[in-house]
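REQUEST FORM: STRUCTURE PREDICTION
Request ID: SP-0412
Submitted by: Lab K.M.
Chain count: 1
Length (residues): 126
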Amino acid sequence: MTMAFADKSLTCRECGNAFVWTAGEQEDKSLTCRECGNAFVWTAGEQEFYQQKGLLHEPQRCPDCRKKAKAERAAARAANMHDVICSNCGKPAQVPFEPRTDRPVYCSECFEARRSAPPPAAAPPA
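STATUS: Completed
RESULT:
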């Protein structure tokens, strides 16, 4: 499949420099997965998606290996969660860090409420 794209001004996420992605006609491209070694097709539509998101590099893993890597990262995050009791409402919750005993720990709802609440008014000078 072939798709035509317009040139697009982008900014590099790493260095912040602006550049123009000169697009022409994109064609499906055959790539090799770095994990399993199987060939997979990077379609013209996927290339357009990468361009729209400002992604500069071709995918290194096939779709199956990408799904597997994503699931492994999610499992690692879940394994690092710690059970706590919210210091505000008393509900059980989980946090992605080991809580300290000298600091309050909040569930997601209470944390968000505290974060979005306006700061307390300063006391008038005496």
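NOTES: The beta strands are 2-4, 8-11, 18-21, 25-27, 29-32, 39-42, 82-85, 92-95.
Reviewed by: T.R.
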